[in-house]
């Protein structure tokens, strides 16, 4: 089997304050491409959608553009930028650093539900 999708043709788009998520679904893999605009912060833009105080998704990510700061529940922090790969476990907040949009690719299994409004 071989399956090919073009990055310009996502299967779904989920809009939220100061950003959006494009979802690509393939056999055994869901990939998210998030665009976070300057001023985006998870606790302000997605908390009401998620219904939790902190993000409870596990992220396996790659930053293509911009910068993102991630703060874990225990207070530890890291900043990621273009070319950085990262893993962030459940229990974190994140926000855009600077005045450039952050484009992040996420290869986590939870992307099929991330930023999806609860019914």
From TrEMBL:
InterPro entries, per the entry: RmlC-like_jellyroll (IPR014710), RmlC_Cupin_sf (IPR011051)
Name of the protein: Cupin 2 conserved barrel domain protein
Taxonomic path: Bacteria, Bacillati, Actinomycetota, Actinomycetes, Streptosporangiales
């Amino acid at each position: 089997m071989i399956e090919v999708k073009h990055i310009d043709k996502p299967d779904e788009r989920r809009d939220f304050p100061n950003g959006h998520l494009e979802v690509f679904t393939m056999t055994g893999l869901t990939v998210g491409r998030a665009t976070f605009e300057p001023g985006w912060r998870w606790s302000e833009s997605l908390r009401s959608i998620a219904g939790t105080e902190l993000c409870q998704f596990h992220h396996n990510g790659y930053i293509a553009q911009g910068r993102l700061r991630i703060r874990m529940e225990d207070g530890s922090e890291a900043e990621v930028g273009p070319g950085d790969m990262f893993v962030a476990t459940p229990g974190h907040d994140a926000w855009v650093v600077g005045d450039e949009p952050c484009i992040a690719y996420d290869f986590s299994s939870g992307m099929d539900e991330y930023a999806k409004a609860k019914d």
